[in-house]
Design goal:
heterodimer; A: mainly alpha; Four Helix Bundle (Hemerythrin (Met), subunit A); 6 helices; globular; B: Helix Hairpins; elongated
């Protein structure tokens, strides 16, 4: 059963990822990205990360992709571009070599170290909370608001800075008046 | 059915899938010209890393991996907001610009 879930989710992730880089229309690429993100969310559920799966769907598929689509429509680039034109002849073969090299090196190191770290059967369920559906959320809350509470507070500063910076970046300065 | 039960996916499978996803995203950043699609490929790579964090959190029995994914998601959201703001302000001046047209970083 877990194998079926893994295979289906992996197919979703890989088809979506290939769609992002192969579809010529940016809207289709964004929708392929949604497919990938949902596949990742399924994998989070399969790995007992229920809270992150919910956040993945809400933040990534719900907010970030909608933001992408909003910008695509706003800029009017929602038409197919011709991706067969290639200004630099060697770029695509080189990119394929780099991509396959990255995949090969990382995969080789993963396979070589598959017995080195952990037992492969670790479980996040503590004995007292096994069977409790909220145990993942409780554990992650204790971690975020306990050990990493300073980083959590800094995160709020980061979000405020990002929002203010974006408003400043995209604000139209009225012509004819002094730029204040 | 016993074969399927025996072949239960371990965290190594998830890590290999994350490696493939990261490679696809890297190729996309290198190949595509549209800045928006390049951003989507960066999101692909971030998600690959998130997947490997969650797989290792399960393997090691450490919740810290999932906490890190939480912070990565927050930073990714902020990064997308700022990046799309930059793209909008560039595209407003030069409609239809690709990554080749904006190499000089001048307005």
């Amino acid at each position: 059963m877990e194998l079926v879930v893994f295979v289906l989710a992996a197919a979703m992730v890989l088809v979506g990822a290939l769609g992002v880089i192969l579809r010529s229309n940016p809207v289709h690429a964004a929708l392929s990205l949604v497919l990938t993100l949902f596949g990742i969310a399924v994998m989070f559920v399969a790995q007992e990360a229920h809270f992150l799966a919910a956040v993945q769907v809400i933040v990534y598929a719900g907010a970030i992709v909608v933001l992408f689509l909003f910008v695509i429509m706003l800029l009017g680039v929602d038409r197919s571009e011709d991706i067969r034109i290639e200004p630099f002849k060697v770029q695509r073969p080189l990119a394929a070599v780099v991509g396959l090299g990255v995949i090969g090196l990382v995969a080789a190191s993963i396979v070589a170290s598959r017995d080195a770290i952990g037992g492969g059967s670790g479980s996040l369920d503590t004995p007292t909370s096994t069977g409790n559906g909220d145990s993942n959320i409780r554990q992650i809350a204790e971690s975020v608001f306990g050990d990493y509470v300073v980083a959590f507070e800094v995160t709020s500063i980061l979000l405020v800075v990002a929002v203010v910076g974006t408003v400043m970046l995209t604000r139209r300065v009225k012509s004819g008046k002094d730029k204040s | 059915m016993s074969l399927l039960a025996a072949a239960s996916p371990t965290s190594t499978w998830y890590l290999l899938l994350a490696a493939v996803l990261f490679g696809i995203g890297a190729v996309g950043v290198l190949v595509r010209r549209n800045p928006l699609v390049m951003f989507m490929c960066i999101e692909l790579m971030l998600n690959a890393v998130n997947l490997s964090f969650v797989a290792l959190a399960k393997r090691l029995g450490d919740i810290g991996g999932q906490t890190t994914v939480f912070f990565v998601m927050v930073v990714a959201a902020a990064e997308v907001v700022v990046g799309l703001g930059i793209i909008v302000s560039i595209m407003r001046k030069r409609p239809g610009a690709t990554a080749d047209d904006i190499t000089a970083l001048k307005g």
